[in-house]
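Request:
You are asked to prepare a plain-text protein record giving the amino acid sequence and the backbone structure tokens, at your earliest convenience.
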Amino acid sequence: MRIGVPKEIKTQEFRVGMTPSGVATLVARGHKVFVEQNAGVGSSIPDDAYVKAGATMVATREEIWDCDMVVKVKEPIAPEFALMRKDLLLFTYLHLAAAHELGKELLARGVNGVAYETIEPTPGDLPLLTPMSAVAGRMSVQAGATYLERERGGKGVLLGGVPGVKRGRVTVIGGGVVGQNAVKMAVGLGANVTVLDINLKTLAYLDDIYGGRISTQYSDPLSIERAVQESDLVVGAVLLPGARAPRLVTEKMIKQMEPGSVIVDVSIDQGGCVEGARPTYHDNPTYDLHGVTAYMVANMPGAVPRTSTYALTNATIKYVVTLADNGLEKAVAAVPHLVTGINTYKGGVPHAAVAEALSVPHTPFRA
């Protein structure tokens, strides 16, 4: 199979869809890999590293998108729409619940889109979302701590406090991979941490791990309101695979927070769990939301691309190999849970949650 790896063109996105090791793995199996020039530079991977691994470097996006399969990081954006064609196999993050225009383009053009974020071997297990969720969860507290500084517009709170001064208060809404990594960072900084979730087993696990160093609460509107109101930093870490994130933090709650507090909504790439949330970029990551600093960057791991690129390829390469060796239809026969990743196929939407988000009929996958 001919596999293309383009240079990402989304604003301030420096990751790349494949490392040289991934290229070498595919080439050893008889596939041809084409990498756009300078695709890996943002992740500190020079072109010659890909050449040594067996890739062919190409100068134009058109050559990359002419391949049988394109492996990316972020969803295609408007300048790439015209490059998509019928029966192209696209393997990347899609987040179609928050990208309706892209969804319409994929369907109209007959692209077979397989999304990293909805591949689900067993309920709740999202192996291709996990590495980026871990990065984003850790970065959420790092970013929040930075924007609590007075020179950044914050209230001037040090999350860990110092002897004689109370610690900063961090609320994490959602106890999944993002939430657990946010909690880990916040506890490590010495903050006063509360985590909310509807899964009692998750709360019990976190309570056991941290031995009373955090507070756990069942997530309901009143609990969220109280926790948000008392917080210096709120991290939104809510996920419904393939669907739009529920709006759990209302504008009323935000107005009750102290001015200069910070909200980081990691679920913004699925529409956000904060009312009034809108995506931002690394070059202008925040805006004022009723006196609170809102950090809403939809590709947070793009700020640490070297770490993120290698973590992502470690997770995706076995699926890339399966798709390249077999083609989409036979790959699903070989690895049945791959079907959960198929968001668009021959003009239809096989993923029920994605179909609902796009307001189109659900079309079960049939090879």
Remarks:
- The chain has two domains: 2-125+305-358, 130-303.
